[in-house]
Write a structure and sequence with these properties.
alpha+beta, 18% strand
Length: 415
């Protein structure tokens, strides 16, 4: 009998800042490190030029009007402050890891980053060179080509999720484009703030002072993702001359939202298919056939849509056979009920995986940040616990018959 973990530790404590903005807290006094996550509505869907959002994410906070780039790097390095950056379609995130004794120095600096950001020519040129090299390298990888083509076909070339940057796009980007984006989208007053670790009253007073500027402009309008019709089943290929391997991507948009119980039931079905090391796809294509080192079936939650994708890298000459075996395993799930033994094994694995994913304060805080970005709430966890308790083979068979159909197949490799 599975015992569901308590979900109460996943709900943040809310500290209200003087300007009315909220600071989500995940306290753990035993930790020696604090983490501050700053999430902004500043993803690529809001940009007016290709790579504008990515450049803003990477260059923001590298310098201020009072602290040039070299001095900024020295300030952070001397105090052991680690900065992580990530931007996706909807949001931009900047995370700071720091020791509590440096909070009174870092928080004023963060306020200054937002108040007086600087994009120097040297910083911009270095970013441009680095990003161009990264993209050129990526375009020589079959996995990158397959991913781009898959989402372009799934969402359409005019949808934010169906577009991607090319090295040539960077020639059109200027420092002023980045500055404009930062002015429009980077505001502490409208950020989602998460503070985790040994949070005490002294730290909260510092947050009240430095992280709560009065709003200078109306809050940015959150992005409403356009609806996307499911494309018909199709096969497409992205050629990469000289490649010795191929990347396969097979999937579709799922026909239900994240808060539907059908989605958590599908999570179980997908785990059986290719969601863990003992899955059917892994057993077939890796263990039995030796086509690949790893094959995975995953779902990715975006705002207003969920994409399913099965992906594997295989030797080029094995591409057609690997696709056939993937389709064979899908068809078996559509025809035959899962055995109670296999279902129980996956049920136990998924419960253990969920518990591992929330085993730590920073892990819980990161989970909360991802939920903010995708606009998901704890109904997903509640539905998952209920599904793991009562899912049965008949439900999985019916779900496979209605969802594992009309799949898009994309390959990338030699022509």
């Amino acid at each position: 009998m599975l015992t569901a973990p308590s979900l109460s530790p996943l709900i943040p404590e809310i500290h209200r800042l003087p300007n009315g903005n909220s600071l989500s807290l995940f306290r753990n006094p035993s930790l020696g490190i604090l983490k501050l996550d700053i999430t902004l509505e500043a993803g690529s869907a809001y940009q007016t030029h290709k790579s504008q959002a990515h450049a803003a994410n990477q260059l923001f906070g590298e310098a201020t009007a009072t602290l040039p780039p070299q001095a900024m790097a020295q300030f952070l390095d001397f105090r052991g402050i680690v900065v992580e950056r990530y931007a996706d379609v909807c949001s931009s995130n900047i995370s700071f890891y720091f020791m509590p004794k440096f909070a009174d120095q870092l928080l004023p600096l963060i306020a200054d980053m937002f108040r007086q950001p600087q994009i120097t020519p040297q910083l911009f040129d270095a970013y441009l060179s680095r990003r161009t090299a990264q993209l050129k390298t990526s375009f020589q990888k079959t996995s990158y080509l397959a991913r781009n083509l898959y989402y372009q076909l799934l969402y359409g070339p005019n949808h934010p999720l169906g577009t991607y940057a090319h090295p040539d796009d960077l020639r059109q980007l200027t420092p002023d484009h980045v500055r404009q984006f930062i002015r429009a989208r980077y505001s502490l007053a409208h950020a989602h703030l998460i503070l985790s670790g040994p949070v005490d009253d002294t730290l909260l007073r510092l947050a009240d002072t430095h992280l709560a500027p009065q709003p200078q402009s109306p809050a940015p309008v959150p992005l409403a993702m356009p609806a996307v019709p499911q494309p018909p089943a199709a096969h497409a290929h992205a050629p990469l001359p000289g490649a010795v391997q191929s990347t396969i991507r097979i999937g579709r948009l799922l026909p239900f939202p994240w808060h539907s119980p059908d989605y958590t039931r599908f999570m179980v079905l997908n785990t059986i298919l290719g969601g863990y090391f003992g899955s059917r796809l892994m057993s077939n294509l890796r263990e039995d056939k030796g086509y690949t080192y790893g094959i995975y079936s995953q779902t990715q939650i975006f705002r207003d849509s969920i994409a399913l994708y099965i992906t594997a890298d295989v030797a080029a000459e094995a591409t057609a056979d690997a696709v056939a075996e993937i389709n064979r395993e899908i068809e078996l799930l559509r025809r035959e009920p899962v055995s109670p033994t296999e279902l129980d094994r996956v049920r136990n694995y998924m419960m253990g995986d969920f518990i591992r994913s929330i085993d730590g304060t920073f892990e819980i805080a990161e989970r909360h940040r991802q939920m903010v970005t995708t606009q998901v709430d704890e109904r997903l966890s509640t539905n998952l616990m209920q599904t793991l308790a009562d899912i049965n083979p008949a439900q999985l068979l019916a779900l496979a018959q209605t969802t594992l159909t009309d799949l898009l197949t994309v390959t990338a490799g030699p022509a």
